[in-house]
């Protein structure tokens, strides 16, 4: 008798899995039809909230920084998570160089080696006023980073006002600059 119950359970498992997957697919299609589901959207749970607590060690040629220093800024600051091993980060550098004349940019070297980051900045320019090292990626996790590059606009007092989870473009830069006016 126990063998029959186990066999029925094993036979029903693929059907149950298909039913759950089908239900999720139907919910997604319903959301698309209603206009409240964007498959390209990345959820940013910290948008319009205070920055998380963090402290970053120095990344030469700069000093590290922490939550309190960022909160004490009287002007908006663009926080940019980047890495020397990241090809999109390289393509974004020219945009960051242009932006650096309009806003203070603080970089966070994400899961990278100090020497690699220093070489990357020497070769490609350094748009950052301050740079901190996030060796293990914990700060990125707290900020909700899903990959690099990602940029966050932090307003005076430490509220995250804008998030861009891709390399900065002309359009995203225009959006950012409009928020500064």
UniProtKB/TrEMBL annotation:
Q: What is this protein called?
A: Cytochrome c biogenesis thiol:disulfide interchange protein DsbE
Coiled-coil blocks = none
UniProt keywords, alphabetically: Cytochrome c-type biogenesis, Disulfide bond, Membrane, Redox-active center, Transmembrane, Transmembrane helix
Q: Which GO terms describe its cellular component?
A: outer membrane-bounded periplasmic space
Q: Which PANTHER family match?
A: THIOL:DISULFIDE INTERCHANGE PROTEIN DSBE (PTHR42852:SF6)
> Where exactly are the transmembrane stretches of this chain?
9-32
Q: Main site of residence?
A: other
At the top level, the lineage of the source is Bacteria
Gene Ontology BP annotations: cytochrome complex assembly
Family assignment? Belongs to the thioredoxin family. DsbE subfamily.
A GO molecular function term, named singly, is: disulfide oxidoreductase activity
Read off the PROSITE patterns from this record: THIOREDOXIN_2
Provide the organism lineage as a comma list: Bacteria, Pseudomonadati, Pseudomonadota, Alphaproteobacteria, Acetobacterales
Sequence ranges assigned to domain Thioredoxin in this UniProt record: 45-181
Query: Can you say where in the cell this protein is located?
Result: Cell envelope
């Amino acid at each position: 008798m126990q063998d029959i119950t186990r066999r029925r359970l094993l036979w029903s498992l693929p059907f149950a899995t298909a039913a759950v997957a089908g239900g999720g697919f139907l919910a997604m299609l319903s959301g698309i039809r209603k206009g409240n589901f964007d498959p390209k959207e990345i959820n940013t749970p910290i948008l319009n909230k205070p920055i998380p607590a963090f402290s970053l060690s120095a990344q030469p040629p700069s000093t590290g920084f922490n939550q309190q220093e960022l909160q004490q800024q009287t002007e908006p600051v663009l926080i940019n998570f980047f890495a020397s091993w990241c090809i999109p980060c390289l393509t974004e550098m020219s945009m960051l160089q242009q932006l650096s004349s309009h806003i203070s940019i603080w970089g966070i070297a994400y899961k990278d080696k100090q020497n690699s980051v220093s070489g990357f900045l020497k070769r490609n320019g350094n748009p950052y006023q301050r740079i901190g090292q996030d060796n293990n990626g914990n700060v990125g996790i707290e900020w909700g980073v899903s990959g690099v590059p990602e940029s966050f606009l932090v307003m005076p007092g430490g509220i995250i006002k804008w998030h861009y989870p891709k390399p900065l473009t002309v359009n995203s830069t225009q959006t950012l600059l409009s928020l500064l006016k």
